[in-house]
Amino acid sequence: MAEAKKRLLTYAGLKALEDELEDLKVVKRKEVAAKIKEAREQGDLSENAEYDAAKDEQRDIEARIEELEGILKNAEVVVEDEVDFDKINVGCTVKVFDITYDEEMEFKIVGSTEANSLEGKISNESPVGQALMGKKAGETVNVETQAGDIQYKVLEISRSK
């Protein structure tokens, strides 16, 4: 059997996933069990929309628990004290100048599990993340994206906030 792929996580990402898992197991499971019990008490389950919705929610919760347990089992936490901030790595915050669109941007490089573009967190596996990994301040990279080719100049690499 093939070994599961390691999931890179920052400590903050690990903590967030552990907190979500705890909430699902301790709070959400009990809430949905109460909904199922309440729906059962209404009688005929064959046409009970509340029961069906609660069972669907229960399946979703159990699937997410299984997914989180798999991620956490294969997690490799990036210890920021051991990260070389002379070059871009997971756990770094990087400030770049977008030469193509003439604007400054800042990204936090994270593992794919933590990526969230709305929060400025990009995956080390994304096209931009892959192009930036290992680069040093002053270097320029070209990135092929769905929106077209973009050129970035690395301005600064720092410890994530």
TrEMBL record:
Transcription elongation factor GreA/GreB N-terminal domain boundaries: 8-77
GO molecular function terms noted in the UniProt entry: DNA binding; RNA polymerase binding; translation elongation factor activity
A Pfam short name: GreA_GreB
Alphabetic keyword roster: Coiled coil, DNA-binding, Elongation factor, Protein biosynthesis, Transcription, Transcription regulation
Domain Transcription elongation factor GreA/GreB C-terminal: 86-158
Taxonomy, superkingdom: Bacteria
Record-level GO BP terms: DNA-templated transcription elongation; regulation of DNA-templated transcription elongation
Coiled-coil intervals, chain numbering: 14-78
InterPro entries reported for this sequence: GreA/GreB_C_sf, TF_GreA/GreB_CS, Tscrpt_elong_fac_GreA, Tscrpt_elong_fac_GreA/B, Tscrpt_elong_fac_GreA/B_C, Tscrpt_elong_fac_GreA/B_fam, Tscrpt_elong_fac_GreA/B_N, Tscrpt_elong_fac_GreA/B_N_sf
Family named by the database record: Belongs to the GreA/GreB family.
Biological role: Necessary for efficient RNA polymerase transcription elongation past template-encoded arresting sites. The arresting sites in DNA have the property of trapping a certain fraction of elongating RNA polymerases that pass through, resulting in locked ternary complexes. Cleavage of the nascent transcript by cleavage factors such as GreA or GreB allows the resumption of elongation from the new 3'terminus. GreA releases sequences of 2 to 3 nucleotides.
Entry-linked PANTHER family: TRANSCRIPTION ELONGATION FACTOR GREA
Protein name: Transcription elongation factor GreA
Organism per entry: Candidatus Mediterraneibacter faecipullorum
